[in-house]
Every structure is written in C-alpha cells, then in structure tokens.
C-alpha cells in the first residue's frame, strides 16, 4: 500500500514553489514557477529511473517501463499549474498521487504488464491562457496545435513564447503517446463528500457546461431627475435576469441545474447615474445534455422577456460549450472496486467542474476519483484536503492502475 | 429683452475650452481648462465694468454696482466645471445666462437698486473632488473650509493645491458676500418638460437624497461542483436587493420614489466562481422627507431580508444625506411671474438633482429655473438644449432678477 506520509511531504514540498502569503500557491502556467514545479517532479521521477517526453504544447509524459512495452500505457495525472491565489491540492494531488504510485511500485520492485505514464497537462486552470484544459483539449484534438500556441495572456505573450521561455517546448507530436486508459485523482471542489461523510467520489462523468457573454444596453441617465418609468436601466434588467435565473435553478429539486453569474460590470459606473450598459457572464451546467438544452432555452427566453420588460437591448454570445461526458464504464468500475475493497465510504457522482479528463476521455477510456476538500473550497489559498483523504484517494488510484495495467 | 443669439454664441465659445471628441466639454474643477473658462468669463465681465472677488475655496463673485451699494446683492449663477465627458449646458447655462443679463442691462444703461452678483461655484460636479456642490456647501457652512481644502482627487492632489495651481485661490472669507437672494437657471437633466411640451420649470425645491455604500459578504465557490442550495452568492443577493427595490419604487404611482444602484463591483470576479463579495452603491430620493425616511426603512428591511434569505452578511453605511429643500416662496413666485408674463408654458416642479442652490438656500432666499434638455440627457457629450429654450429661461431669470433687485 502507498505511503501517505511520503505523499503528504511531496505535496507540501511542491507548495513551497510559488508560495503565497496565506498558505496557498501561485504557479501560473508556463511561468518560471511552473517550470520549477515540473523540474522538481522530474528530479523525483528520474530518481526512480523513469524517462520522459514533452509534446509541442508542453504536456509532460513520464514513463515507467512495463513488461510489454509494445502495449499502450496506462496513464494517470492532472496538472501542476494553479490559480493566481490557488491552493496546494487542485491538480497537484492528481500528479503527486501518480508519483506516489510510481514510488510504491519501485519500493516493491513491481513491474506492471503495461507501461505506466504519469501526465502533467499544461495550463489546466485557464487563468493565464483561456480557456481551461486547453492542452489536454489539444491532445484530444479539440483545438489545433497552432491555435493553442497562438493564444495570448493578458500581457500579449503567446502560449508558444511562454513555452519556449520556460523550457518546456517539446518536440513530440501532440496526441502521442496514445493511452490505454487515463485515471485522474482530484479534490472534489464542492461540498458533497464532506457533507455526506464520504471519502471517495467514484466519478462517472462530468456535467455539461456552457458559457455565455451577455450585454445589456439601455440608456444612462441622471439618478435624480429621471422618473422610474422613463428609465432603461441596464443594471435593473441584469438584476432581474440573475434573480429569475437563480429562482429557476433553485426550483429544480434534483439539484442538477446550476447557474452562475460570475462577472458583472457596469460601463462608466457612477453613483448618481442610472447604468446604461452592463456586461455579464453566465455559466450554465447540467448533468443531462437535453436538460442543459432546456436550461439554455429558458435562459434565452428570460433574456428576451427581461429585455422587453426593462426597455433594454439584450445580446448574448455562447463562447464555450462542453457536452456532458460519460466516463468509460470499465474504468469507473475499476475505481469503484478499489474504493469498495479498501472499505472506504464512497458515492458515484458526476463532476461539477471541468478537468483534463473531460478531453482525454474523447481519445482513451477514462475515469476520475474525488476526495473531499474542506468546506468545498477550491481556487483559494484556504483549499485543504486531509492527509488521510489524500492517501485514501491515492490508494484507490494505485489499485485501479494496477488492475488496469495487469489485465 | 435679452439677446438669444449672443447668449448662444457665448455658450458655444465656452464649449471650445476643453472640447471633447463628440461635441461635449471636459473642464474638470480646478484644472487649466476650468481656469481658462473662468478667465474667458472674467474678460467678458471686465469689459462691462464689473469687479470681482474670489473666496478661499475658489468661488468667484462678479459684481455689477447698484444704486444702493450698501444693500446685499441679488445673485445669479451656477458652475463652469463639467463631468469628464460633460455637455455644453449643465451649469454653464446658469453662468452665461447671468452674463447675458449683465450685458442686457449694460446695453440699456439700466442700473438696479441693489447690486447684482454673478457667482461661479467651484467643483459642483464632484467628479474631481467628492462630494458634489462642495464649494457652495462650504459657502453655506455645511463643510469647513479646512476640510474642503484637504479633499483629494484620485491622484492625491488636494483641493487646496489645485486651487493654488490654477490661480483661483482667493483671499476673501468664505460666506461673503452675503446675498439678498440667489437664482439659478439650469437644464432640467430629466425628461419631464420635454415630454410635457413645456418650456419652463418653476423649481419649488429639491428632493431629498441619501447615499449608501453596501457590502455583501457571502462565500466564493466553484461554479461547477457547488450545489445551488449550498451557495452563499453575494451577487445573487445583490440582484434580489436591486430587483425588489426597483419593484418597490415602480409601485409608487406618484412617481416620487426614486432608487438607483449606480455602482456594483464583484471582488475578484471570475466566470466560473460564485461571487463571494460584492460592493454596491444605493441612491434613494424622495420629495417628502418622511417618505424618504420610510423609503430608507424599507431599504434597510430589505437588506436584512435578502441577507438572511441568501446566507450573506450585509452591511451598509449612509455616506451622504441631503434633506428635502423648499425654496423661498417669494423667489419662486418671482420666477413664476416671469414665466407667466412671458407667455411661456411652465410647470411648478421639484428638482431631482442636487444643485448649488440646495446649499445656498440655507443662507439666502433662493429659487431655480429649469429649461428642457433633449431626451432628458445630461452628464453626457450629447446633452442639448435649444437656443430658444436657453433664451426663454434667461429671459425669465432676467425678469426675476430685475424684480428682486428693484423691489
Ligand atoms: N477544475 C476546474 O476548475 N476547471 C475549470 C473549468 C470549470 O469551470 O469547470
Ligand atoms: N446636478 C447634479 O448632477 N448634481 C449632483 C448631485 C446629484 O446627484 O443630484
């Protein structure tokens, strides 16, 4: 069985690269900190005798030989980049759990039938280069290599330039190596496991997500002399939209409808001016694709209704859509067996967040393992998972990988 | 009678000082542009034989002698500063109408019993130094001279430093000269006169206004995995607050209840993060003081209710309150007589916006005259009032001033 203390020590050592004031980490994709994190991991893996290759979008594949090196490898991993004020676990756990699996096998001189690969996907967070999961998406063919290399950060630095600068512009073709299967351990990033007192989420898939940019154009006017009934208040319209959309989602007793307005900005805001122009973003999610269609239709109807009632011109653009993902039943079953055989309390669940596994599942049988995180908080310096839960998830990962690699 | 073309020419000449791309003006308070505008006015007034003095907060008093120079002067005026993308009329009309009155009297060699004073109040807009109407407020004793001089703009330049730099740091005590009465002509800044086909608003007072800073503190969370019922969404709470407050104001059939949320900001906004912290501003107005009390009570109740329903901690601070102002009946009557005798369509009305007249009315009998502005738009480069309406308002001002100065 894996060594929970060693896993924890490697998590805490990684957190020292790009530490933040309040105990989190800042390793934005393709920065010197990201490179230093990768280097530390490679040092550890080289010490185990692993070899590695980097593809043209910086995805890092660390290989441990199997008995049958002609067979496609069984893979595990996640990402090492963080949010600007990120935590010590989101992504990192999935990578360092993979390291712990490799170390455990090395300790016992176990050689699997199939080779194993530990993957570090580039720029999962999407904070430096939008969108999220862009390099696993490129690996899976959802984005072209050229478009990914051309993406710019806020300072106009391209993904390709940043990749060169940090030393991880690899040569191997994107899409290689082809994987037998892929397992990703991750913190849940939500409150369900903790609330329910469960240790393992056996992730059966990922809910569908759609992102919209919305603009509301009314007429700015002086707050004092403009009667309420003459107003075309873009913020009042936005408030109605958000309030109605919230009520709609809350009315779904299954809890499967999720709506979020994450950004809202008043153009030229002033305390005594009725807002004329508002921009906002909407994130719609559902675990069932045609329910997500229905949610989008409701949302679009609401936009028209609110626009008319408030005398505001409403436009929207759907800028991203990720369909509902169902993970491979054989991989999900392997995870579930692992949890059961370890005697851990678990539940089957859908992932609410996007992960690299979403795209990888398009080209290889895939599953995920969740462990609880305190108060469901992530993307936050306060993010925390207990050493026990990290170890339990890693054990389940190890068991699933072994089963799969030796089948 | 006054010369409408000459008035219009002076308005258009003033607009050439700090012109903006789209036909508006930018003369922020106590900038070189503000100084150049004052200088142009002084050139015009000196040519008429007027004298002038500047007080310690930069208020400019231009005097035309009367027959009885021992009596307190009858005053008129407004402000020359503008919003960053301001128009050609807001404030400027009241000053240049005063100039036109002085020129008309000079043309006909009319000397009034009482002396006349044309006042330019400093920093009415409040865009450079908050709050609005700060120098007329200082004149009237609402703010101390020291606190006004110490106010800082966004770059940390104090009011006092800016006053020195632009050459209008005067020596005369604030509060002098004491005025017999004060008349301010202004564009309505709202749509009522235009909609009703009326030329003159006989302003009987100014509605009360209260400004609040509100913060909503929930818990930021990942938009994907966080179930709706676990969320403590500060923006959803803000949306509910704004929507309910709007509905409350719209339900008042008298139209006298006005509520505006002009600024709203999400702290660390991100498209896939449930907003944890929101700041917003609320502007409440009513023409009746105890109705304004009731409106504030409703608003405060709503804050608690929304906070509880949404699991969000709501705090508020009232940062400014301007009570309902009733102008002096004898001054209002003089304006009304002027409008009636000129055969103009007029209505008695309350001002929705604050003006220098609000503070001046605390220390001298005061009234205001409104003329329509196109589409009710102000604080905007597109602000427009017709030459005919500007002339009509100036004629009413002239008649009221003459009646008052010769009584
Ligand atoms: N795990 C994660 O934060 N992914 C980003 C995409 C999403 O919003 O779910
Ligand atoms: N006229 C004007 O814009 N005054 C500023 C104060 C207010 O918001 O009414």
From TrEMBL, chains A, B:
MF GO annotations: hydrolase activity, acting on carbon-nitrogen (but not peptide) bonds, in linear amidines; metal ion binding
Pfam families hit by this protein: M20_dimer, Peptidase_M20
SUPFAM superfamilies found in the cross-reference section: Bacterial exopeptidase dimerisation domain (SSF55031), Zn-dependent exopeptidases (SSF53187)
InterPro entries listed in its UniProt record: Amidase_Cbmase, Bact_exopeptidase_dim_dom, Peptidase_M20, Peptidase_M20_dimer
Highest taxon of source: Bacteria
Keywords noted in UniProt: Hydrolase, Metal-binding, Zinc
CDD domains: M20_bAS (cd03884)
Cofactor needs: Zn(2+)
Positions bound to Zn(2+) 2: 90, 125, 379
Sites where the protein binds Zn(2+) 1: 79, 90, 186
Domain Peptidase M20 dimerisation: 205-306
Note describing how the cofactor binds: Binds 2 Zn(2+) ions per subunit.
NCBIfam families, sorted: hydantase (TIGR01879), PRK09290.1-3 (NF006769), PRK09290.1-5 (NF006771), PRK12891.1 (NF009527)
Similarity comment: Belongs to the peptidase M20 family.
Name of this protein: Zn-dependent hydrolase
Species assigned in the record: Chromohalobacter moromii
């Amino acid at each position: 069985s894996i060594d929970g203390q060693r896993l924890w020590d490697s998590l805490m050592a990684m957190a020292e690269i790009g530490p933040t004031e309040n105990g989190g980490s800042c390793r934005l994709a393709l920065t010197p900190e990201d490179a230093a994190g990768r280097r530390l991991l490679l040092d550890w893996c080289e010490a185990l005798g692993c070899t590695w290759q980097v593809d043209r979008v910086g995805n890092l594949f660390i290989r441990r030989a199997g008995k049958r090196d002609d067979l496609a490898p069984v893979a595990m991993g996640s990402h090492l980049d963080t949010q600007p004020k990120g935590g010590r676990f989101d992504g990192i756990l999935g990578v360092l759990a993979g390291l712990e699996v490799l170390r455990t096998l090395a300790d016992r001189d176990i050689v699997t039938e199939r080779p194993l690969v530990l993957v570090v996907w580039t720029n999962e967070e999407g904070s430096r280069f939008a969108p999220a999961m862009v390099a696993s998406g490129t690996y899976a063919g959802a984005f072209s290599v050229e478009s990914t290399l051309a993406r710019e950060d806020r300072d106009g630095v391209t993904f390709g330039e940043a990749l060169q600068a940090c030393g991880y512009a690899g040569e191997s073709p994107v899409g290689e190596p082809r994987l037998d299967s892929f397992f990703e351990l991750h913190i849940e990033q939500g409150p369900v496991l903790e609330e329910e007192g469960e240790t393992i989420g056996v992730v059966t898939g990922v809910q569908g997500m759609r992102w919209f940019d919305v603009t509301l154009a009314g007429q700015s006017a002086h707050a004092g002399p403009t009667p309420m009934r003459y107003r075309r208040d873009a913020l009042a319209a936005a408030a109605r939209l958000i309030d109605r959309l919230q009520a709609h989602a809350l009315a779904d007793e299954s809890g499967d409808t999720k709506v979020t307005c994450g950004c809202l900005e008043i153009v030229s805001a002033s305390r005594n001016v009725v807002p004329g122009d508002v921009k906002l973003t909407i994130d719609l999610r559902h675990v069932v694709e045609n329910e997500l269609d229905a949610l989008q239709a409701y949302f679009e109807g609401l936009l028209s209704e609110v626009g008319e009632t408030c005398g505001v011109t409403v436009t929207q653009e759907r800028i991203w859509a990720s369909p509902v993902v169902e993970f491979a039943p054989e991989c999900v079953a392997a995870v579930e067996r692992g949890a059961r055989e370890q005697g851990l309390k678990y539940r089957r669940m859908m992932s609410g967040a996007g992960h690299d596994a979403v795209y990888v599942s398009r080209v290889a049988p895939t599953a995920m393992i969740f462990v609880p995180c305190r108060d469901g908080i992530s993307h936050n310096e306060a993010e925390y998972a207990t050493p026990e839960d990290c170890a339990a998830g890693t054990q389940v990962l190890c068991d699933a990988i072994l089963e799969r690699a030796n089948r």
